Amino acid sequence: MRSSKLRWLLFVVPITLILIVVRFPYMVDVPVWNFLGRERIDPATLHLQGEFVESNLGSAEQPDGSVLVRMIAQQYVFVPQCVVVPVDVLVRVRLVSADAAHALTVAGTSYAVKVVPGSVTEREFRFAQAGEYAMPCHEFCGTAHAAMWAHIKVVAPDAFYRLMASNTGGRCD
Ligand code: CUA
Fold it and tell me: Is this structure's pTM higher than 0.85?
């Protein structure tokens, strides 16, 4: 009896330890090495210098006709809170985090942009239909995680280019 208990313990304890060690890198629900080798950025100076300063956030038309959207995720907001993009145009989203792991998702689509502090994540979107889409955070990032949302408004291209002429960053917040 005693030896079967001991054998059981000798089996369960190492398996549990192995599972904890294997599970650890997946805390961000993708392995941490997924973020290694990415473009690095200092989360402490995001708003002070470089690509993600306040004036550079939001939508920007690119020479190749695509639209680049730059956003910052931080507990518990996305900045900007709302961006406008054109329908049926390639939208490249570049997201960084100022603090924790976050995941920007687009309701009703499979789009997701996960970020950890210190690296830039870039993903491509293309919206076939105009409309307003909610963008909730889908990575538990703290007590107010459930209240962390942004919005994206997808409009006809001519409406988008008209807006951009007067509203740098195509913001709707
Ligand atoms: Cu940010 Cu959850």
Answer: no
